[in-house]
Structures are given as C-alpha cells and as structure tokens.
C-alpha cells in the first residue's frame, strides 16, 4: 500500500511538473524525467515476473499519457524500458529472440510463457544498468544529432529553419555546423511572440507568411519533430506543413531532427486527437465584441506526411522515412506494442 | 573700377569692351602726341624710356582694365560672359602689342630721327602722326570687328541672363522649400538630390510637356527637383494632395479603396478644372487634349514621376480614363464635363457595386454545397460575397486565416460579428489545420496577369499549397479591371505603400470568378480582349 501511494505521489508530481512548466521543457528533459520516474516505480513495485513488469509499465504509461495527452514520449519511454527488460531476459536465457517470421508459424506459446514467468530478481541489476544506459543515450542524443550537421549542411547553403528559438537541438545543430567552418546563411521563421525573446543572432528572422517568397532562395529546410511515426509521417510545430509543401514545390530537401525517443510505435490514425491548441491573443477591444462568436484557433502541431520529409536525422544516423518502421524494431518489442 | 560690380554685371560686355577701346584709343593718341612732342624736344635716350613708360602706362590702364574686367567677370559668375571677356582681352592684348609695336616703331623712328635732327623733325612727327593715325586706323578697324563680335555675344548673353535668372530663382525656390517644412512632409519624399535616377522615356515626356513647369525644370531634368519645387506643388490639385495624405495616414487596406478614392478625387479635380476653363472661355474642341495634359503632372506627382507605379488595378482604370478623355468630342465645356462625370460614375458603379453583385451571384451558386469556407486576408469583394452567402446559407462556417496576428483579417471578423455571425480565426500557423477542415478556399487578389498568374498578398501561396494538399478547390475573385496585360512588382507602390505581393501560378488555382463569368485562370487573355484591356497606345 505504501509503495502504491508513493507511486501515485510520484506520478502526480511528474504530471504537475509537466503542466507547470511554461514554456514546455525540452523533450530530452521530459524523457529523462520519465525514465527516472519509471525507474523509481519499478524499484518500488518490484515486479516478480516479466509479465508483471510489462503490464504495470503499460498501465502507468496509459495513465500518464491520459493525463497529458500531448506527451507521447511517456509511452515511448515506457515501452522502451519494457523492451530492455525483455532483452535482458533473453540474454540471461541465452539464445536470441526468435525471428519474427519464424514465430508466425511456430508454436509461440511456449516462449511467451517462458518469458512471462521469467524471474525478475536475476535481471534487476542488469535492468537498472541498461536503464542508466538509456538515460545517457537520451542525454547524448543532442550532440549526436548536432554532429550530423556537417554532413548535411554545406558551404553557401541557405537554410530555412522553423522554431529555432524553442528547440535546443536545432540550435546545437546549426551552431555545430557554423563552428565546423561551414559558411551558410540561415533564415529563421519566427513567431511574433518569439521575436520578443532572444532571437538567435545568426539567423535572419522572417515571418511565416514571407516563407513562400523566400523559398526560391533557400536550398535546405530543417525542421524539428515533436514525434514521428512508423509510417514516416511526423508531427512538427504548427506552420511546418506549409513550409514543407513549399519546399516540395521547389524541390528543396527537408530534414527533420528527430531523436530516437520521439519515435512513436503506434500509427496515428486520428492526428486530430492529438492536436492541442494553445492560448490565443486577440486585442482587447476585439475580444470584447467577439465574445461567443469568434473561435480562435492556435494549433500546436502540424502533421507532415512522409512524402514531404527527405530525411529524419536521428542520433544514430539519418534515415529515410520508409525505414522508420524498421528502426522501431530496435527500440520496441512487437509483443509490447501488440499488448498495449 | 570705380563703378559698382552690380552695375557692371548688368552692363553688357559689349559696353565694357567699348569702354576699354575708348581708353585704348585715348592712350594711344596721347602716346602719339607724347612721342611727337618728345621727338621735338628730348634726346634719344628718353624716348625709348618714355616710350617704355608710355607702354607701361598704356599697359597699366589696359591691364587694370583687364584686371577689373576679370574681377567683374568672376563676380558675375557667367561663363559665356567670361569667354567673351577673354576674347576681348585677347583682342586688347593684340591691340596692346600692336600699340607696342607702333611705339617701338615710333621709337625707332625717333632713334633714326635723333641722328638727323632738325630737318627730320617734321618727318618723325609726321611719321609718328602718320603712325599714330595708322595705329588709329588699325584700332578702329579692329574695334569694328570687335563690336560685331560683341553684338553677337550680347544676343547670346540675353538668353543666358534668362537662364541665369531661372537658376537664381530656382535657388530661391529651393530656399523657400526648405523653409516651409510642412510642404515637404506632404510629399513624403526624402530623396537626396545627389541620387541619380534613370527616367523611362515616357516619363521624360511628362517632364518636357507644355505644362506650366516645363520651362523651369528644363535645365535640371531629374525628377526630384520637380517634386521639391514649391511652385510645382501648387499646381497639384488639393483633391490629389488630400488623396496622398489619406494614403499616408490611413493606409488604404486594399487597392479597391484606393481606386474608389482616386476616382472621387479625379471628379473633384474635373469639376474645378472645367470651372476654370469656363472662366477662361477656352475652346471646347481642345477639352480632351488639354485635360490630358493637365492630368499628367497630377499623376506624375502621385507616382513620384514613375518611381512608384500605380497599383495594378488603378493603372488599368487610369488608362481607360485617359482613353475616354482623348475621345471626347463635344460642343461645350459643360457637355464635355458632363460626359466625363457620367463616365466616372459608370466606372464606379460597374467596377465596384455591380461587379460585386455579379461575382457574388456567380460564386454563391458554386459554394452552396460547401458548408465550410476558408478565406485568406482581407479583400472587400470576398467580404461582400461571404456576407451575401451567409445570408443565403445559414449553416455556412467561415474560417479566416490572417497573415499577421490581428492583421487585416480582423476586418472580416469584425464584419461578421457586427451581424452576429460566428467565425473562426487563425493565424498563418493554423492554415494547414484550417484547410484540412474546410471545403473551399476563397481568395482575393491584386491582379491577374495574362498567363493566369494571380498576384495576391504575401502568405496566400502557403494557404493555396495547403488547400491543394487537401484537395480543396481554390477560387479567386477578381473584377474585370484587375486583369492586366503585363507588369512587374515594385517594392513601393503609389497610394498603397510597401507592396506585399506574391505570385500564385495558374496551376494551383481552380477557378477565377469575374463579373463576366467563372473561368479557369488560363483564360485570362479572353477577359483582356473582351474588355479591351490589352496594351494601349
């Protein structure tokens, strides 16, 4: 009981921290926080078998995600940890995971039963270790992505970027290229609100409506992903869709920076379910007249279809959208996804 | 020398030269006399020295004359006069040298004479006299020549005096301009006079026309000085000045408003101009021609001599107006004016009121099946259409995309909430989301070109791309006078300030709704032909 309430406390604290922070923390921070939270939960819960672990993780993740709909990272991390656990079990047992193709016609019950009843105590230490590795991987993802900038940005490139002010990854990406001696020009698309904050000094700020006129001059477009899906589509901050469409019209490559923990194992059938809306500002006199009549929309995300993205820049490598499905195998276990 | 430089300025160089030669004549005469006298009395040593002295004295008057001449020339600041004076100096020097030679000759004659004293006394005197007379003859001949030259120069001088006067007055005018600062502000022109512009050829015609300012600006033909002239500004009708001021202050939200205001200003101008014409009892036969000339400086002022071209739609209107003016043929001034006023009224009605009705009728038929409409930025035609449609289709939902937060799209919102309709409002960020949830995108435009390209506000292209992505039709509304043959996009445009225009290619647009009919964008040349809007003489 005690552990339960503790767990509840932890979860509540986590959700509050997510909601309190405005502007939103960077995704890596959230991912780290999630990892730590789940680690503590596992420690307190002490699941006996693999099955228990998996079920408890899934439940917690569902709860957390339901509380904060827009944070898909929570689910991702939960499922990643579950995969790590499975890996450890397999390692201990010896032998490798049966081939997915093989398992289609093989009698699978046995293996799954074995996995389910596997004892957690043995692998606990190893699990903790691999969770720590996960943390380091999350923390190092920014530098890894930034280091790939030298392969993607060249001299005399004109790079159009979006949401530079809010994304540290994007910032690191561009500074790394600049430090490596690349002489490129950066066009930043800034919002009205963001302009008041520190505008990055190496970019020429333009408004979103000017993007179309500046597109013929650009040679590359770099966007940040909020999440990306196995079909190669992704969620980007609002406004990214038009930029990508214009880039496609002018045959300009679009690079999307997407660290691994943003890879969602589920297909997004209803992206609108996820579309959060931000607060909007209307001038006071207008809002007085318009009460009840005007619906102000300020969507947070845009969905980019997979044909609009040239490359996803992940911390391990650059991948084309069609390969994302295969990549998810590295991080998630099919069984977990199926059982979720 | 003792005279004032100002007095001398006004004198012709001809009189100056005449004075110089008078002096020369006198000096040479005295020289001759002195020489003759010294021949009789003093020994040989003296005459040369005397001759030299005489030379010097003859030199010095001429030299001082020359110097004073120079001085006067410099103060007069007149190149031609200077040249004439230089020519005169050369002649004077030539005269001087002749005089010197004469003096030397007479000196030699003296020296010869001194050897044979008395019997040759008369001879040298007669010789010197003869030489002096010879000198005099030479001088008088050369004087005559010089007078001819100076007469010619005097004629040229008169011309230059006028120009000089203008120059001086021009400086005066510019100094007036500097004092009256508010006049300058109305022009909203802060152009440095050192900047050089290349005027297109037809604009040069404007400058050199027989309008009132033609003469004054003949010399300095850059556009800027014409603008800065205070007297030039006085020629601009206050209606147009008011138009400019309004444009500066209120910033017309769209080109239609600018067109309407321009036509109203023109009507006022026409009334006043015809009234003045009646006063002057000018012939009605030249009404059209004169009006055409009179309107040119007004337009030139509006467009700052072509540096800020008129917005596309207004350019068309003005061209058609000029055409109508040229065709005017009526018996009296009053009738001419009536015809024109009627024409202007018609233009206003046809281009704006009726056109809106026609477009909305055509369009509402099409969008009746669509319940959700999305529009981009402000356009009065679109607004009219939307309000009409909303009246007829109560379940219609409208979303407005605004390029800037709280930009011109709020005009749409205002018009809707004034009537109690609900509307959705979003910025550029939400255009993708908006298009996903709407059924048709309706767009206003600034102009439609002959190849079907649509010139619309910046940001329209992004909205159109999103619409195309989600396979919703893009409908552009345009009155017929917005179809233009060709043109180019300038940074600044008269009456509308900075132009934020981008081009949407014809393949992205589904249909263009004009007051004639609904057509595909590539049928733009048909409209141009139908309304005879193609390139005009």
Would you tell me the overall average pLDDT of chain B? 73
CATH fold node name of the largest domain in chain A? Rossmann fold
**Strand content range of chain B:** 5-15%
CATH class of the largest domain in chain A: Alpha Beta
Uncertain spans of chain B: 1-9, 40-64, 112-128, 170-196, 199-229
Distance between the termini of chain B: 63 Å
Strand count, sense and barrel status of the largest sheet of chain A are: 7 strands, mixed
CATH topology of the domain at 356-535 in chain B: Rossmann fold
CATH classification, class level of the domain at 356-535 in chain B: Alpha Beta
Radius of gyration of chain B: 40 Å
The assigned CATH architecture of the largest domain in chain A is 3-Layer(aba) Sandwich
The overall strand count of chain B is 12
The total count of helices of chain A amounts to 16
The CATH superfamily of the largest domain in chain A bears the name: Translation initiation factor eif-2b, domain 2
SS summary, helix count of chain B: 19
CATH homologous superfamily designation of the domain at 356-535 in chain B: Translation initiation factor eif-2b, domain 2
Structure description:
Chain B: Residues 99-109 have a biased composition (Low complexity). Chain B: One of its GO terms (molecular function) is translation initiation factor activity. Chain B: Residues 127-146 have a biased composition (Polar residues). Chain B: Belongs to the eIF-2B alpha/beta/delta subunits family. Chain B: Keywords: Cytoplasm, Initiation factor, Protein biosynthesis. The complex is a heterodimer of chains A (340) and B (537). In chain A, the strands form 2 sheets. Chain A has a 7-stranded mixed sheet with strand order 3-2-1-4-7-10-11. In chain A, strands 5-6-9 form a 3-stranded antiparallel sheet, with helices on one face. In chain A, a hairpin with a 5-residue loop joins strand 5 (227-228) and strand 6 (234-237). Chain A is built from 16 helices and 11 strands. Chain A is α/β, with parallel strands linked by helices and 340 residues long. In chain A, helix 7 (120-147) crosses helix 9 (168-179). Chain A has helices at 2-20, 27-45, 50-67, 73-93, 100-105, 109-116, 120-147, 149-152, 168-179, 192-196, 211-214, 240-249, 271-274, 284-289, 324-331, 334-339; strands at residues 158-162, 185-189, 203-206, 220-224, 227-228, 234-237, 254-257, 294-297, 301-304, 311-313, 318-319. Chain A folds into 2 domains: 3-140, Up-down Bundle (Four Helix Bundle (Hemerythrin (Met), subunit A)); 148-330, Rossmann fold. The mean pLDDT of chain A is 82. The relative contact order of chain A is 0.12. Chain B is α/β, with parallel strands linked by helices and 537 residues long. Among the domains of chain B are: 233-349, no CATH class; 356-535, Translation initiation factor eif-2b, domain 2 (Rossmann fold), CATH 3.40.50.10470. In chain B, the strands form 3 sheets. In chain B, strands 3-2-1-4-7-11-12 form a 7-stranded mixed sheet. In chain B, helix 2 runs antiparallel to helix 3 (46-76) and helix 13 packs antiparallel against helix 14. The longest helix of chain B has 58 residues, at 122-179. The relative contact order of chain B is 0.06.
């Amino acid at each position: 009981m005690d552990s339960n309430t503790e767990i509840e406390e932890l979860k509540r604290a986590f959700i509050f921290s997510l909601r309190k922070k405005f502007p939103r923390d960077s995704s890596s921070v959230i991912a780290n926080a999630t990892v730590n939270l789940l680690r503590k939960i596992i420690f307190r819960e002490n699941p006996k078998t693999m099955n228990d672990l998996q079920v408890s993780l899934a439940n917690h993740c569902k709860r957390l995600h339901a509380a904060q709909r827009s944070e898909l990272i929570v689910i991702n991390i939960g499922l990643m940890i579950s995969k790590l656990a499975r890996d450890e079990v397999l390692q201990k047992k010896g032998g490798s995971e049966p081939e997915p193709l093989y398992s289609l016609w093989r009698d699978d019950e046995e293996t799954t039963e074995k996995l389910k009843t596997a004892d957690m105590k043995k692998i606990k230490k190893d699990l903790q270790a691999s969770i720590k590795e996960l943390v380091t991987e999350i923390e190092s993802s920014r530098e890894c992505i930034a280091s790939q900038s030298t392969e993607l940005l060249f001299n005399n490139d004109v790079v159009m970027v979006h949401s530079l002010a809010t994304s540290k990854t994007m910032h690191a990406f561009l500074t790394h290229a600049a430090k490596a001696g690349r002489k490129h020009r950066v066009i930043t698309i800034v919002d009205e609100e963001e302009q008041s904050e520190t505008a990055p000094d190496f970019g020429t700020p333009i408004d979103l409506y000017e993007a179309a006129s500046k597109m013929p001059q650009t040679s590359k477009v770099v966007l940040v992903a909020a999440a990306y899906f196995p079909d190669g589509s992704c969620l980007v901050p609002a406004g990214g869709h038009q930029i990508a469409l214009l880039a496609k019209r002018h045959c300009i490559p679009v690079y999307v920076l997407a660290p691994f923990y943003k890879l969602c194992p589920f297909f997004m059938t209803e992206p609108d379910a996820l579309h959060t809306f931000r607060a909007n500002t209307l001038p006071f006199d207008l809002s007085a007249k318009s009460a009840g009549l005007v619906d102000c929309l300020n969507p947070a995300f845009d969905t980019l279809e997979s044909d609009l993205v040239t490359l996803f820049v992940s911390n391990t490598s650059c991948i084309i959208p069609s390969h994302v499905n295969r990549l998810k195998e590295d991080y998630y276990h099919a069984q977990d996804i199926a059982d979720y | 020398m003792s005279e004032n430089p100002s007095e001398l300025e006004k004198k012709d160089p001809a009189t100056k030269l005449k004075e110089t030669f008078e002096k020369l004549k006198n000096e040479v005469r005295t020289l001759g006399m002195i020489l003759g006298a010294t021949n009789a009395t003093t020994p040989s040593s003296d005459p040369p020295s005397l001759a030299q002295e005489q030379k010097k004295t003859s030199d010095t008057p001429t030299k001082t004359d020359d110097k004073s001449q120079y001085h006067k020339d410099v103060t007069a600041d007149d190149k031609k006069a200077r040249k004439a004076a230089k020519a005169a100096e050369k002649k004077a020097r030539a005269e001087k040298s002749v005089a010197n030679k004469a003096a030397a000759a007479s000196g030699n004659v003296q020296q010869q004479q001194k050897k044979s004293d008395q019997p040759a006394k008369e001879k040298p005197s007669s010789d010197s006299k003869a030489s002096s007379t010879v000198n005099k003859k030479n001088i008088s001949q050369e004087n005559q020549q010089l007078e001819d030259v100076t007469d010619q120069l005097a004629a040229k001088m008169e011309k230059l005096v006028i120009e000089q006067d203008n120059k001086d007055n021009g400086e005066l005018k510019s100094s007036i301009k500097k004092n009256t600062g508010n006049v300058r502000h109305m022009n909203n022109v802060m152009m440095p006079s050192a900047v050089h512009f290349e005027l297109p050829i037809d604009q040069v015609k404007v400058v050199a026309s027989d309008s009132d300012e033609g003469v004054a600006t003949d010399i300095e033909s850059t556009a800027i000085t014409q603008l800065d002239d205070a007297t030039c500004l006085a020629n601009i009708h206050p209606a147009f000045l008011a138009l400019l001021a309004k444009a500066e202050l209120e910033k017309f939200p769209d080109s239609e408003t600018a067109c309407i205001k321009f036509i109203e200003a023109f009507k006022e101008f026409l009334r006043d101009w015809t009234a003045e014409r009646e006063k002057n009892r000018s012939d009605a036969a030249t009404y059209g021609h004169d009006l055409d000339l009179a309107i040119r400086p007004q337009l030139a002022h509006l467009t700052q001599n072509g540096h800020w071209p008129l917005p596309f739609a207004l350019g068309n209107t003005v061209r058609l107006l000029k055409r109508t003016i040229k065709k005017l043929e009526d018996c009296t001034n009053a009738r001419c004016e009536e015809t024109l006023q009627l024409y202007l009224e018609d233009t206003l009605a046809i281009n704006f009121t009726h056109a809106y009705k026609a477009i909305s009728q055509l369009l509402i038929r099409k969008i009746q099946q669509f319940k959700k409409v999305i529009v981009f930025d402000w356009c009065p035609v679109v607004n009219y259409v939307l309000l009409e449609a909303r009246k007829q289709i109560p379940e219609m939902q409208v979303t407005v995309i605004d390029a800037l937060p709280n930009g011109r799209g709020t005009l749409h919102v205002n018009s809707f909430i004034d009537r109690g309709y609900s509307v959705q409002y979003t910025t550029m960020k939400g255009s993708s989301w908006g298009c996903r949830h709407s059924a048709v995108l309706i767009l206003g435009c600034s102009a439609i070109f002959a190849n079907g390209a649509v010139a619309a506000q910046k940001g329209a292209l992004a909205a159109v791309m999103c619409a195309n992505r989600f396979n919703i039709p893009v409908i552009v509304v345009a009155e017929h006078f917005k179809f233009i043959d060709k043109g180019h996009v300038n940074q600044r445009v008269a009456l509308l300030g900075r132009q934020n225009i981008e081009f949407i290619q014809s393949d992205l647009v589904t249909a263009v709704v004009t007051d004639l009919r609904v057509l595909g964008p590539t049928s733009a040349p048909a409209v141009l032909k139908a309304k005879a809007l193609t390139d005009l003489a």
